[in-house]
Specification:
Elements (H helix, E strand, L loop, with lengths): L2 E3 L6 H9 L5 H6 L17 E3 L7 H7 L6 E8 L2 E2 L1 H4 L3 E9 L6 E7 L16 E9 L7 E5 L3 E9 L4 E7 L12 E10 H12 L2 E5 L4 E11 H11 L3 E5 L2 E5 L1 H5 L5 E3 L9 E4 L7 E8 L4 E8 L4 E4 L7 H16 L3 E8 L9 E4 L7 E12 L3 E9 L7 E8 L4
Parallel strand pairs: 12-15, 16-22, 18-20
Antiparallel strand pairs: 1-2, 3-4, 3-7, 5-6, 5-23, 6-10, 7-8, 7-9, 9-10, 11-13, 14-15, 17-21, 18-19, 19-25, 21-24, 22-23, 23-24
Length: about 425
């Protein structure tokens, strides 16, 4: 069988284009038995021998394909503030980036070949090392197009080696520096006569990070932080009022998912875009049509009652606590809308669409009863032999936005 020897920076696409005149033949290269041992490569170093099997290509198709420039996706990496792209480019065999809309931290994973034993020697990683990867694409959706997608700022939290040959798997998460105390220090503190935004400013200020508050503010009479780190406490507090929180690039972002759900879809996707293995699921019981929240505040000797929506599927809620009717209403609406999120879900994997991010909406077409507008809960970017995105979606449901009745009464026995 014929072979070709790689040059530094080669990918399966570029090799296929050089040999066959078409990036569409990359799959033929990867399926060759002689190349199975090379499938972990995303970017090749110089000097790797790749088998090039003969393939049948109709003349008309060959004439059309030869005019196409190859798509290419690579990773540019800042490691502890220094540009490490050139040094690790030949070692990197796979890269994964999980972009999460809210609730948990974004994360990355890298698989690196340690042929020269640098990673078990002078380059041995340390917990807390700073990584700033950027996904770079060329000719992805058009000839001459070059796009950069910064993934954010991550800190190493776990790594391990296996062999042989020796390989390093390294995981990093999007959290502020450990010495900031944002996640590492448990605190007990009382906040009074304040707002959700002001509490966020206090917390991020003492951690040396920035707060981007992109939501309606919420007045808070009193709230206790009891032996919790700032990250866990503020995340719980934000979600209590039906808002969302994300840590990105050493910033804390608070936003309203309802606002993002109302935006126009960023892309229209059909089954032709999906790789095999997609799935769709819905709850048999369906969505809640209303909510009843009732909580007795013993300090004020009052019972707050809020109802919203109507129908025969009512969610009953008696926590978390409320200090007034305004807060009780926000809690009730947050509870029912959060309960209805994820009633219908879908998971698909497809060729990467640069520009899509978690919290965008897409429209699914061509699947009849499954069609509709979906919110992106998470995107998993995977770069290895190819660049794909795995999308975790939830259907956008109609939200319950206002109370039908509210009351504050003296508690029984008061």
């Amino acid at each position: 069988m014929k072979t070709i020897t790689t040059v530094q920076g080669d990918t399966w696409d570029t090799i296929a284009f050089r040999v066959y005149g078409s990036v569409l033949r990359a799959q033929d290269l990867m399926e060759a038995r002689e190349n199975i041992r090379l499938l972990d490569h995303q970017v090749f170093p110089a000097g790797v021998v790749v088998a090039t099997p003969e393939v049948e290509t109709p003349a008309a198709a060959r004439m059309e394909e030869v005019t196409m420039d190859p798509r290419k996706a690579t990773i540019s990496l800042q490691y502890n503030g220094a540009n490490a792209s050139g040094q690790i480019g030949s070692d990197l065999s796979a890269f994964q980036y999980k972009d999460v809309a809210s609730g948990t931290s974004d994360s990355i994973g890298l698989d690196l070949n340690d042929r020269d034993h640098r990673w078990i020697g002078a380059w041995f990683p340390q917990k807390g090392d700073l990584l700033q990867p950027t996904i770079q694409t060329r000719n992805w959706t058009g000839e001459g197009q070059q796009l950069n997608f910064p993934c954010g700022t991550f800190r190493v939290d776990d790594f391990g080696f296996n062999g042989g040959p020796i390989r390093l798997h390294l995981d990093a998460v999007a959290v502020p520096a450990e010495n900031s105390g944002f996640k590492a220090t448990d605190r007990t503190e009382t906040y009074e006569a304040t707002t959700l935004k002001e509490i966020g400013q206090t917390i991020t200020g003492r951690s040396g990070i920035s707060l981007f508050f992109e939501a309606p503010d919420v007045s808070i009479e009193k709230v206790e932080q009891s032996n919790q780190n700032d990250c866990a406490f503020y995340t719980d507090l934000v979600e209590k009022y039906g808002l969302a929180i994300k840590i990105y690039n050493d910033k804390v972002v608070v936003f309203s998912e309802a606002v993002y759900e109302a935006k126009a879809p960023k892309a229209i996707l059909t089954p032709a875009d999906f790789e095999p293995g997609w799935s769709w699921d819905t709850s048999v019981t369906g969505t809640y049509t209303g909510v009843k929240y009732q909580y007795t505040n013993s300090d004020k000797n009052k019972t707050f009652t809020v109802t919203a929506g109507s129908g025969d599927r009512i969610l009953t809620v008696n926590e978390p606590p409320a200090d007034n009717l305004t807060e009780a209403t926000a809690i009730a609406l947050a509870a029912v809308n959060n309960a209805n999120k994820g009633t219908t879900t879908m998971s698909i994997t497809m060729m990467a669409r640069p520009g899509l991010i978690a919290s965008d909406c897409v429209e699914i077409r061509g699947l009849k009863r499954l069609d509709g507008k979906y919110y992106i809960v998470q995107i998993t970017h995977s770069l290895g032999s190819k660049y794909t995105m795995a999308l975790d979606l939830r259907r956008v449901e109609a939200r319950i936005t206002g109370a039908t009745s509210i009351s504050s009464t003296v508690a029984e026995g008061g």
